[in-house]
Specification:
By secondary structure, the protein is an alpha+beta fold. The chain has four helices and seven strands; from the N terminus they run E-H-H-E-E-E-E-E-E-H-H.
Length: 164
Amino acid sequence: MQQSDFTTTILVAATPEQVFNAVTNVRGWWSEEISGPTAQLNDVFLYHYKDVHICKMQLIEVVPNKRVVWLVLDNYFNFISDQNEWKGTNVIFDIGPADGGTQLQFTHQGLVPANECYPICHDAWTNYIQHSLYQLITTGKGAPNPEEGGFNEALLKKWNLQPA
């Protein structure tokens, strides 16, 4: 039985350019606790949320106003045993015109129901895309995790991550 990758879709009354700009403004909808650039091909950034989640992403495909793909280079969750679940997966934002606006299809390729993190990750991504990113696109203000000042040399060393 093939397992489906997590996908969620939003339709917004905005242009593909506005959606693309919001997607690449990761601090505006996912987290203010991002270190590194988030908009250009080969950019690498780190995401951090308390002691719960830290990951390192690289933009491996950027087609303005159409598509953005992140590769998960490294990842840690404090609530699962297999720390490899996200590593090597792709986070994909497909943008296209739709009736009355633009459709954004979000897919986390490799995030499947068999993953231990799936229930939590499903709910988190749904919230970030359906609410925070949607709000950023439609009102200019998303609901990202607030900056907490958690990035420091000790944290990065603990997880064998290099600053972005």
